[in-house]
Design brief:
six-stranded mixed β-sheet; binds zinc ion; 33% helix; alpha/beta; single chain
Length: 241
């Protein structure tokens, strides 16, 4: 089985469509979204439509819940706040209800999905260092946890007491080890690479592989400017920061 897993679309329709096309060419069997469908980008409704039409299992991101009025916007920096207020005005009641009803955690037999961390998932902590990773590992009942939120792809691996970090493009999964996999961001990468990012977990080959996809960045930027969203949100797409 091949599972396509992605996060942080952030209303970037051009990036999301390119990722969906790439996923279909890669012949994945199931799709999962780790939240933040909306916020920052100019096409929140269109991105939501794809998630709903394709019945993609999705957990709640902080922007999703904030746009639905379910998460306090004082958490956000001024630019993010402005984008959330804009997004809230764009979405209809039904779309906001859908976002509000997204769960914080989704569990399957072999893995778990969460936007930020399993440590107080409702507070959306960033797993940026080993300390936060260990707090998440302590809450893990499965060997694999997929996360988003930081927009920086990479993998924390726990072997007993030892935790290491890998930014390798592909890793082979080993029994007895535990993994927290950040799948990167579809619509607003922040690892210095502007290409849209997602991962495929091949359960037969026991590999997790990161993919990067070209998309029409200029079009996404144009839409952000036309919408009257902060210009910096458009500019950062070019640099992937
Ligand atoms: Zn995000």
């Amino acid at each position: 089985m091949r599972l396509g897993i992605f996060a942080d679309i952030h209303g970037n329709l051009q990036a999301f469509e390119a990722v969906m096309l790439s996923l279909s060419m890669e012949k994945v069997d199931r799709l999962f979204c780790l939240g933040d469908i909306v916020g920052y980008g100019a096409n929140p409704s269109e991105c939501l439509n794809i998630i709903r039409k394709e019945n993609i299992i999705t957990v709640a991101g902080n922007h999703d819940w904030a746009a639905a009025g379910k998460f306090d916007i004082t958490y956000f920096n001024p630019m993010a706040k402005e984008a959330i207020i804009w997004t809230t005005q764009k979405l209809n009641k039904e779309e906001k209800d859908f976002l509000a009803n997204l769960p914080l955690i989704h569990k399957e037999d072999l893995f778990v999905l969460v936007h930020g961390s399993l440590e107080e998932p409702e507070r959306f902590h960033y797993i940026m260092d080993k300390k936060r990773a260990i707090s998440c590992f302590q809450q893990m009942q499965k060997a694999l946890c997929f996360v988003g939120h930081s927009h920086v792809p990479g993998i924390f691996i726990r072997d007993g007491q030892k935790v290491i970090y890998s930014s390798d493009k592909e890793i082979g999964l080993q029994e007895k080890l535990e993994y927290i996999v950040n799948v990167g961001s579809v619509g607003q990468p922040r690892d210095g690479n502007p290409l849209a990012c997602y991962c495929i977990w091949d359960t037969r080959k026991k590999t997790i592989t990161r993919y990067r996809v070209e998309y029409e960045i200029e079009e996404a930027q144009k839409r952000i400017m036309v919408a009257g969203l902060p210009t910096a949100l458009a500019l950062r797409l070019f640099v992937g920061r």
